[in-house]
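sorry for the late reply, my laptop died twice this morning and i had to redo everyting from scratch. anyway the thing you sent over, i finally got around to it. pasting the sequence first so we're on the same page, its 352 residues, then the predicted structure underneath. double check i copied it right bc i was rushing
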Amino acid sequence: MSPPTDRKSYNLCSSSSWLTGLAVGASLWGLLWLALIAGQLGQPHVNNIWVKEAYTLKQRAVSAAGDERKLLIVGGSASMFGVDSSLLESELGLPVVNFGVNAGIGTYALPALAEPHIKSGDVVVLPLEYRLLLWDGKPSYVTLSWALEHPKTLRDWRMVTWLYGIWQLPLQRVWEGYAGIPNNYSNDGPYGPHRLDRQGDQRFSAKSEQSAAQLAYLRQLPPEKYVKTLAASRLGLNLWAKWWHAWRDRGACLLVVPPPLMWHPEYDKPAWRNFFGQVGGRVESVGGFYMGSAADTFFPVEAMFDTNYHLSAEARVEYTSWLAQVVLAADLPCLSGRTDGDGKPLYLSPMP
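ok and here's the structure:
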């Protein structure tokens, strides 16, 4: 083939070669990035230590309940800070385990951790943070960090979640996966088993233990962005629905309730009222049983401890008292003893 003889042909060939080179380079870089990620999958990371240790404590609490029917709180740290298990136990007459740890590990991982501990006759109450409940499929850094250490979770991820995660994953997190846990590491932070009681509730969260910096941080927090990110999302609800079907078929009773959340003036605007007002209907559209409203569980900044989802110990009593009333008003079959012909709890309505 003779070389191009005019400038136009030369420019076309030059552009084509440049684009081909760019595509090859991008592909090689992508393969290298994937290889780097794959090489440290399953390796422990400091981000996850307190979460794993907290779940170990809570799993022991479940084991201590034995075969007795129990009430299991399933959620993130809003539950860990927000529920007084001893108070709830005295109100409902069932052993209570607070299985809330960290919503950040994500909607794929969190219910899978609760799954082995839910038995027939158990009451499962889910005060799920809104992003955990209505997840849009975009993993946070915490979700990614957990999944890298627990790669079995990745098998269930949708391709769009995979691609978003690969694009957003910091190089530093990958290198830290190779480095492992520092020899001098010790968990003396604000979260972990050293700050939990035997039922899994957060300790050391009284207002007297709140620093001025923590209160100042709370006062400057902006509203969440759920109206923009979660108003039309379906993935999280569909993922939860699969677990709810399985747990109900097993004979457990399930109740989804709003989590405690710090009030912000933005939440009084029409778009926000509409968002919060539709949560219950969205849950029930996939077969969940929902009671309460966001307005019931908004708290002022003075009631919070260190994040907009973490109640102080004093406010936890208020939320737990409300929660006990809601569970009793729900008239759950697992509490009332109503069963079908096979001895399973008789539900008020079947799952669609």
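The beta strands are 71-73, 96-98, 123-126, 253-256, 261-262, 298-299.
thats about all i looked at so far, will dig more tmrw
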